[in-house]
Design a protein that fits this description.
InterPro entries: AB_hydrolase_1, AB_hydrolase_fold, Pept_S9_AS, Sec-Metab_Biosynth_Hydrolase. This is AB hydrolase-1 domain-containing protein. One of its GO terms (molecular function) is serine-type endopeptidase activity. The protein is α/β, with parallel strands linked by helices. The chain has a single domain, classed as Alpha/Beta hydrolase fold, catalytic domain (Rossmann fold), CATH 3.40.50. The protein is 34% helix and 16% strand. The N and C termini lie close together (5 Å). The mean pLDDT is 96.
Length: 253
């Protein structure tokens, strides 16, 4: 177990602006953790053509600034943020940076009800079987420059265990997402990660079934796993319990 308290870097899922994660921010900051959740370049109405690589570059730029201050970082990838949580760590684990005489680095990856590609060179769309879910509005695959939007039916998928009024408020805060970001290959997968990695299963998830989450864990050796009895976004429905779970994972290192 390391004695230093790491910073926490959250990579949000598709369509989710950083404000969606504020309940987690408030609680982790109260526990004494530095907290970061940058808005991804691929998020928003002006994000047409922005790719996965652009997101990786932006997150790594923030992370390296923290590393150069001597900080170690725990990264949390929620939903599609799990793909980014893999790629951004490449070459930036604490042990790897130490070998180069550099301070700081990523020390733990937490996947929260997260997607990741099963093989290098695949993208999100391929992982979904080549077709976008019927609750999304997408352009023709691989034709570039489209925004990925949500149908009204997505509200119940994303916020299945929230009161309808709260689910509606959150749904209205979601933003379009660059489709190109999910049609760009990922070249670093959980198998390539050598530091501790934990997958948090959301047992009532209406986006990723519990069976799918368990299959994802089984595909990659070395995962620790935890569970929480919520839908896709425990930081919204059970923020106290979820923050305590994150703390438990961090201090177990």
């Amino acid at each position: 177990m390391t004695s230093s308290r790491p910073a926490v870097l959250v990579i949000g899922g598709a369509w989710h602006p950083p404000a969606c994660y504020d309940p987690l921010r408030v609680r982790l900051e109260a526990m004494g953790y530095e907290y970061y959740c940058p808005q991804l370049p691929s998020l928003g109405a002006e994000s047409r053509g922005v790719t996965f690589a652009d997101d990786v570059e932006a997150i790594q730029k923030l992370a390296v600034r923290l590393f150069d201050q001597g900080k170690e970082v725990v990264i949390i990838g929620h939903s599609s943020g799990g793909l980014l949580a893999c790629d951004v760590t490449q070459g930036h684990e604490v042990a790897q940076r130490a070998k180069e005489g550099k301070p700081g680095g990523f020390r733990h990856v937490i996947f929260l009800a997260a997607f990741f590609v099963p093989a290098r060179g695949m993208d999100m769309l391929q992982t979904l079987g080549g077709a976008w879910p019927d609750w999304q509005i997408a352009g023709e695959p691989y034709t570039k420059g489209h925004l990925l939007r949500l149908k009204d039916s997505a509200k119940q998928k994303l916020f299945s265990d929230l009161p309808d009024s709260e689910a509606q408020r959150l749904f209205e805060s979601l933003l379009p997402h660059s489709q190109d970001a999910f049609e760009t290959p990922s070249n670093f997968i959980p198998d390539d990660i050598t530091m501790p990695k934990t997958y948090i299963i959301c047992e009532k998830d209406a986006i990723l079934s519990i069976e799918l989450q368990k299959r994802l864990i089984a595909q990659s050796p070395g995962f620790r796993s935890e569970s929480i009895n919520t839908g896709h976004s425990p930081f919204l429905t059970e923020p106290d319990e979820f923050a305590e779970l994150v703390k438990k994972i961090i201090i177990a290192d």
